[in-house]
Amino acid sequence: MPKLETVPRTKSAAPRLLPKTATGIDGLDQITGGGLPKGRPTLVCGGAGCGKTLFAMEFLVRGATQFNEPGAFITFEETGEELAANVRSLGFDLDALVAEEKIAVDHVRVEPTEIAETGDFDLEGLFLRLGLAIDSVGAKRVVLDTIESLFAGFTNQALLRAELRRLFRFLKDKGVTAVITGERGDGQLTRQGLEEYVSDCVILLDHRVNEQISTRRLRIVKYRGTSHGTNEYPFIIDEKGMSVLPITSLGLNHDVSSERISSGIPRLDTMLGGKGFFRGSSILVSGTAGTGKTSLAAHFAAETCRRGERCLYLAFEESPSQLFRNMRSIGLELEPYAKKGLLRMHASRPTLYGLEMHLVQIHKMVTELDPAVVVIDPISNFVSGGTSRDTQSMLLRLIDFLKARQVTAFFTHLTSGATSGGTSWEGTDVGVSSLIDTWLLVRDIELAGERNRGLYVLKSRGMPHSNQIREFLITPRGVDLQDVYVGPEGVLTGSMRAAQEAREKAQALERRHEEARRQREVEAKRAAVEAQIAALQAEVKGLSEEGKLLAEQDQAREDELSEQREAAARRRGADLESAGVRNDGNERKKGQR
Amino acid sequence: MSAEKKPNGNGAEPVWELRLYTAGQTPKSLAALANLKRLCEENLKGKYKIEVIDLMANPRLAKEHQIVAIPTLVKKLPSPLRQIIGDLSDKEKALVGLQLTPHR
Questions:
Q1: What are phi and psi of A216, to 5 degrees?
Q2: A301 in Cβ contact with A478 (< 8 Å)
Q3: What global pTM score does this model have?
Q4: What is the complex's ipTM, to 2 decimals?
């Protein structure tokens, strides 16, 4: 094993030099850059139950059905009937293929108890049978499953090894692409060290159980003369056979879209620069239980379907019908979209299978449905299906995969109560925060015996976004966002906010009343002053009239006096005219006299 | 040993039916045949039958009869069926394999 760790990283300069035989196994041909080395043997090894036989069988069946390459299956462990029965569950009709002479099956039985060795021998019988099987169908592909059984049947190991060497040479001479399976041994890839004979391509299958959940993985240990993926790739075996997940970290060279799509909640769009999320971005909504994460997700899903785009909704907590019912209560009708085929619900328990299985499942569904949006509600449950590191790597691959396809990913994450009590609001126990483009946080705000919901945008890459907390209301007409009261008394929500608003209203009313009163006062004062002015003016008028009167009286008196003077003058016989003109002078003269 | 005598006592003389599988005239096959003949002459004189099957001429039989190694000697009768592989050069082992322990 340590020896094999230092697999020579072959140069990828000319990957087309080595002719390859496509396996037809989902994903494997991508990892290997075209398939197994043509005309050479490939060793497939792994522990019991890791899918070696299935791998080999699928290789043959796909070859016979898809690539028109007949195959020969030499089984050392199971009989032809058993083999046919085993692979029937995967949709392979081995009997029919045998009848059509596309596949030849030969069960080589080696019973050690029946065999005694007396001197020199060879395995010419096996060679003959192999040759017969190959020739009978014109096989291009050969499987030996598993040749190590020979080691149990014969005691002369040295001879056996020499014969094996001859066997592989024989296979190469025949020009067949062979798959040889081998049981994994201690400290080496196979119990009998088959890897020393098969030096072109070695594939290791692995079946690991972690926390009662099993995950199958495949790794190409070596592949001489070609570049290949060196990672461990998860694979699943389902009713359609094997699928290997070729997605790894795809790198960060995917195209991005600057198209914006609505979140389904107008006020939330407003918070996100007025236009909503970026298409193809990854969105995370995290929060404690009951903060409305699913409602947000459902809004987004409904909005997607309303636009006529497809949405894949992966529910890991609720069944579709439960979700439909619950969302109906907030005025969201999802069921018609599901009926129309725009919304595809997939509900399963996260613990149903391992992370990799989930990943492969999602991968498959996304490939099938080609949705615009994928909702995963919630991702936190995946942690129960693996360690958080596994979960992180799985989500990383998922996000990369979705991004590469320009699928908008909407995740919800349940923040556990323990962390919410502390200060780690802004963290996820699956450690995906750095992979997320837009992160919304819904949290409960406990105040005055009430629990209200608050929403804010923790981050949103590439767009201006609101930094304010909004109160998050779930109404029978859907989710609504309200401004929270932020004032000298802190952030208030719910009835506190309502009370505060009422209080403010009352205060405003009072202020208005006060103003009106003051206005009236001023008015009254002004009226009083005006009255005063009027009185004074009246007085002025009175005075002036009095003055006039006095003047008139003076005049009257004057007139009377002058009349009297005139009368007196007349009596004295004075010249009227001169008396009139020189009245004063006369008087004075008179007086001087 | 008593168990072995029982079937012997039934018939007049049990006939040993032996079948030797070879693949062409290889030295190993020839040696095996020679060794077998000598062995039978020494131990089963007059009560054995040897059938030689050349798988090279009829490879289908290798599959039908489950033959892997060459040469293979199959003791069909008396039961139980036994398979001996090799050129029978190891006489002791061959006798044990045929359950022909020399018990004169």
A1: -100, 140
A2: no
A3: 0.63
A4: 0.82
A150 chain-B contacts, CB cut-off 8 A: 68
Residues A306-341 have pLDDT tens digits of 888 999 998 888 888 888 898 888 888 888 888 888
Q: Find the closest chain B residue to A150 by CA distance.
A: B68
- Are the Cβ atoms of A117 and B96 closer than 8 angstroms? no
Whether the CB-CB separation of A35 and A28 falls below 8 Å is answered with yes
Both tokens assigned to A212? 């009662």
> Residue A121: which of B59, B66, B86 has the nearest Cβ?
B86
Measured in angstroms, the CA of B49 and the nearest CA of chain A are apart by 20
Pairing of strands A20-21, A36-37: antiparallel
Q: Identify the residue among A118, A120, A148, A163 best suited for mutation to test binding to B, counting B beta carbons within 10 A and taking the highest.
A: A118
Contact in structure between B60 and A90 (CB atoms under 8 Å)? no
- Say how far apart CA B1 and CA A414 lie, in whole Å: 77
Total residues found in chain B within this entry: 104
Count CB neighbours of B13 within 10 A. Answer: 8
The residue of chain B nearest to residue A117, with distances taken between CA atoms, is B85
**Cα gap B89→B87, rounded to integer Å:** 5
Q: Which of A116, A128, A154 sits opposite B62 (nearest CB)?
A: A128
Q: Is B83 within 8 Å of chain A by CB?
A: yes
How many whole angstroms separate alpha carbon A301 and alpha carbon A299? 5
Six-digit token string for A94? 């081995």
